[in-house]
Design goal:
The protein is of the alpha/beta class. It contains 11 helices and 11 strands. Helix 5 packs across helix 9 and helix 8 crosses helix 10.
Length: 333
């Protein structure tokens, strides 16, 4: 079991909200724990041993005993501290059924298009939950009708605008996989290369489409440490995000926080009242045309980048998301 993050000191009156976040997905739990502490909430993070999502059934089965053992320790701690259980990754909630208050936080592959067994597990988990949260608005359709969308938190102090001039034109900031729409991204890359053969494009060296991107003259970079991501983003003028899910993921939000325009086709029905300032072109040629237009008009490029950062800071900064979460917790007391 991982070493717990030490809690804040008790306030003078000895009364406070207490919550234990269980499991981690894309750094969301750690950011929420930090943000909640800044709000005066006694917040801690506990790990659950977990196999890779693409692991074999055998490896997943072998990992169950360490998970059950770790969950037993956390359940004891929850009872001892009278804390809210906030479980990240919905199927992990089966280990905490019967615990109250129980918050289940869905992140994507845990609930999207569930298999038969997964669907049965989720049904039991949702019945046991006191609150179900969705990390992106598209997930609501897979969750109970009373579920709540909680924006993914972004560290807008770490992901910020850099004063240095970028050296490269375009960053493909998504894994080169089907779920991220790699074939659709490749169409945009080809359209860009056709119109401007010398354009500098970088992509992450991960996924089954790597060789196809390499064949188009795309420079590939390996996964980097989280603290190096802002520099990677800042070294590019524009970012291409995922092109299949229709929602902003963590990568796109991080790029926007760095004041970079992001090309991503969004589902308008999920953003009807608060549409983000992105390059929302679904057609590859239209997306390429707008990317090239911004590259050729620096003032427009800067304006879209500034609007992008402002949008993220107001809706996805750690303090703002943490304040929303505290209000939801208060309703469980």
């Amino acid at each position: 079991m991982s070493t717990p993050i030490p809690p804040n000191e008790l306030p003078a009156d000895g009364v406070r909200l207490s919550v234990i976040h269980i499991g981690e997905v894309a750094g969301v739990a750690a950011k929420l724990v930090k943000g909640l502490r800044d709000q005066g909430v006694h917040s801690q993070l506990r790990a659950l041993p977990a196999p890779r999502p693409d692991s074999s059934l055998l490896l997943k089965g072998l990992s169950m005993w360490p998970r059950v053992s770790a969950a037993k320790e956390v359940r004891s701690e929850l009872r001892l501290e009278d804390s809210i259980a906030h479980v990240h990754y919905a199927t992990s909630g089966m280990l905490f059924a019967g615990t109250h208050p129980l918050v289940i936080h869905a992140h994507g592959t845990d609930v999207r298009d569930p298999s038969g067994l997964q669907s049965k597990i989720l049904k039991r988990v949702f019945l046991a939950a006191d609150l179900v949260l969705a990390s992106t608005p598209d997930l609501i359709r897979w969750l109970p009708s009373n579920s709540v969308y909680l924006p993914n938190p972004v560290d807008t102090e770490m992901f910020c605008e850099y004063p240095e001039e970028p050296e490269r034109d375009v960053l493909v900031f998504a894994a080169l996989t089907d779920v991220k729409g790699a074939p659709q991204i490749l169409e945009v890359v080809r359209a860009l290369k056709k119109q401007r053969p010398g354009i500098g494009i970088t992509a992450i060296n991960h996924g089954p489409y790597v060789e196809q991107f390499k064949a188009e003259g795309v420079e590939l970079v390996d996964f980097t440490a989280p603290e190096a991501l802002p520099g990677l983003i800042a070294n590019h003028r524009i970012v291409i995000g995922q092109r299949k899910l229709g929602v902003l993921g963590t990568s796109e939000l991080q790029a926007m926080a760095c004041a970079r325009p992001v090309a991503i086709p969004l589902d308008a029905s999920l953003h009807s009242s608060d549409f983000p300032p992105v390059i929302n072109a679904g057609d590859a040629r239209d997306a390429a045309d707008e990317i090239l237009r911004l590259l050729e008009t620096p003032l427009d490029l800067i304006a879209v980048g500034a609007a992008s950062r402002d949008w993220v800071v107001k809706r996805h900064s750690v303090p703002e998301v943490s304040r929303q979460l505290v209000k939801l917790y208060d309703k469980l007391r």
